[in-house]
Each structure stands twice: as structure tokens, then as C-alpha cells.
Write a structure and sequence with these properties.
Helices cover 47% and strands 12% of the residues. The protein is α/β, with parallel strands linked by helices. This is Endonuclease.
Length: 322
């Protein structure tokens, strides 16, 4: 199943006259089978009535580990004030995270989607500039397992765990990946491989072909764990030149900014690392041949629908033999 990552923001929906029928016709015209989307707390499930939704991307809180641990001192250090913590999470109690994801799980079942996407990752804001962490991937994974086992119970759509390039599921440790999968009680589970995120774990990649080779090497080293890769977010980055910069000036600018400007500085920085570009490599097909994927989602950055269409068509050229 080939899908498009499509979010129902104002500009996108205005382009399609706020009609899911028009969106469906657009998806059909591209030769795709539907969309993966996110509604989080932004829309009720009724908003997606008639939408060709096959996958639901659950909301991601990038900085959540201390909230889960209820370490208020660390939270204040990272967020600046309890008020900012409450704006971010809706309060100060970890049960809020459980309740949030229980609601999203309920939404996924109500919508009848085939899969859900959950990020197993955590990063403190300043660490995105320093790339130093006082928490390990295993610690993040252990906390994520606690949360997941509180939320996802019984039957439901596949829970696909997405890799990122911060501590957590980054696919660099088979031991951590195996521990995560074995520790989750929910039976209908698997991995969602984000190709760009995996590339972004390597500061030496400066071309798409280098990125493809790196992914192929990682898949080879994963061995039998590749059988759990049920979904793919197909996109790419060439992060090497950017990641080799000194970010001390960006960190100072971020430290001196107010909360709104900090948010914009963080966003710009992340987009420079993880560009969500078209994966322009003929080795893409080899990557897809290595894993038993069920869902292939084109997750491509674009400023508008016209650019999105151009990028999708360009990416599909590299999938012609599928």
C-alpha cells in the first residue's frame, strides 16, 4: 500500500475546497492508495469523515521524559516555568500523557485505520544544538514501554514505532530495538522505518546515494529484526555539511530568545537537519526490497500542494518498478 503523508491544515484544505472527495480524487490521480494523517487534539474524528485515511500519526511530545518521571525540577530547567510546562502538556501530572494517547488510540479504532505511528524518542531543547545528552536511548525506551503498556490494550490497528535521530529508537542498537519490541505487550506492533531519520544519525552523509548505502548497511546489520519493519516513511536528507557546523552561536541566540522565538529557532534547526526531501537515489528500490513493508508513505516537505505534487511525482519515478 502506497500512501501520502497529508495533514489537513488550513492551506491544504482550502486548496481542495475543504472537500475530502477532492482530496481522494487527488490521491487517486497520483496512483496512491490513501493518506497517513494526524489530528491529535486539533480536530474531532468527525472531521475526517470521507477522508481516505489508512494510517494515523499520533502526536509527538519531543521533550517528555522528565514529565513522565514527574521530575519537576528538571522540567522547570528545560521549560523555564511551570506555566510553560502546563501549556505544553496541559498540566503537571503524567496521567495526562496516558489519557492523551488513550484518546488517540480510541480515535484510531473509531476511524478504522490500519496502523498508528508512535515516536519512541526524547530530546531536551538545548541538546538539539549541543548533541550531548544526560539520558540514554535505553532510558527513553524503558519509559516509552511503560507509557505504551498503559495505553495500548486489547485489539486495534497496528502500532508502528518510528525511529528518530535523538535518544530512543534510533535503530543503531539491535539490543535496544529487540528490548523495545519484546517489552511491549500490545500484540499488533512493528517498526516504521523513517529513511531520513536514519540518515540523520550519520554526520558524514552528503549525497542521497551515500544515505541509501548507509540504510542498506544498517538493514544488513539488523538481521532478523528487519521482519518487524511493516511501514516506511520514504524521504531523505543530506545532513553532513550542516551537522558539521559549530552551533554555539545558534545556542546563544536560542538562550537569549523568548519562548516563541525559541520555538522558531528550534524548528528551523531541525528542518535544516531533517529536510524531508525526495529520496533521489536508484538504490531506493533496493532498500524497499530488503524489508517486508506493508505501508509505504511518501512524507515529503513542501510549501504548498503544487510543490507537493511535483515532489510526489519525482519520488514515484524512483519507484517505477514496484
Amino acid at each position: 500500500m502506497k500512501l501520502l503523508s497529508f495533514f489537513p491544515n488550513k492551506n491544504n484544505m482550502e486548496h481542495f475546497n475543504h472537500s475530502w472527495g477532492d482530496v481522494s480524487s487527488y490521491i487517486d490521480g497520483l496512483g496512491l492508495d490513501g493518506i497517513e494523517t494526524m489530528i491529535g487534539t486539533y480536530h474531532p474524528t468527525s472531521y475526517l469523515e470521507g477522508a481516505p485515511v489508512r494510517g494515523l500519526h499520533l502526536m509527538y511530545f519531543p521533550t517528555w521524559l522528565d514529565f513522565w518521571r514527574e521530575d519537576h525540577e528538571a522540567l522547570i530547567e528545560n521549560f523555564g516555568s511551570s506555566e510553560r510546562v502546563e501549556r505544553y502538556f496541559g498540566g503537571m501530572k503524567r496521567d495526562l500523557l496516558i489519557d492523551h494517547y488513550k484518546k488517540e488510540f480510541e480515535n484510531a479504532r473509531e476511524l478504522g485505520v490500519e496502523y498508528m505511528v508512535f515516536h519512541v524518542s526524547h530530546v531536551n531543547p538545548r541538546d538539539i544544538f549541543t548533541f550531548t545528552h544526560d539520558y540514554t536511548s535505553r532510558e527513553v525506551i524503558e519509559a516509552a514501554v511503560e507509557l505504551i503498556n498503559e495505553v495500548f490494550k486489547g485489539e486495534g490497528p497496528a502500532l508502528l514505532l518510528e525511529n528518530l535521530f535523538w535518544p530512543g529508537l534510533d535503530l543503531r542498537s539491535n539490543e535496544d530495538t529487540r528490548y523495545l519490541l519484546n517489552s511491549i505487550n500490545y500484540r499488533n506492533k512493528g517498526i516504521l522505518l523513517d529513511t531520513s531519520h536514519l540518515i540523520c544519525t550519520n554526520k558524514d552523509i552528503s549525497t542521497f546515494d551515500e544515505g541509501a548505502e548507509y540504510i542498506l548497511d544498517k538493514l544488513e546489520s539488523m538481521g532478523e529484526l528487519t521482519k518487524y519493519i511493516r511501514g516506511i516513511h520514504l524521504n531523505a536528507s543530506t545532513p553532513g555539511p550542516y551537522l558539521k557546523q559549530d552551533f554555539s552561536h545558534k545556542l546563544r541566540k536560542w538562550e537569549e530568545a523568548d519562548s516563541l522565538d525559541q520555538f522558531h529557532i528550534e524548528g528551523e534547526h531541525i528542518k535544516n537537519i531533517d529536510t524531508h526531501s525526495v529520496f533521489e537515489s536508484h538504490k531506493v528500490r533496493e532498500i524497499l526490497d530488503r524489508v517486508p513493508w506493508e505501508y509505504l508513505t511518501l512524507e515529503l516537505a513542501s510549501k504548498d500542494v503544487a510543490e507537493l505534487t511535483e515532489n510526489v511525482k519525482k519520488q514515484l519515478l524512483f519507484l517505477e518498478e514496484l
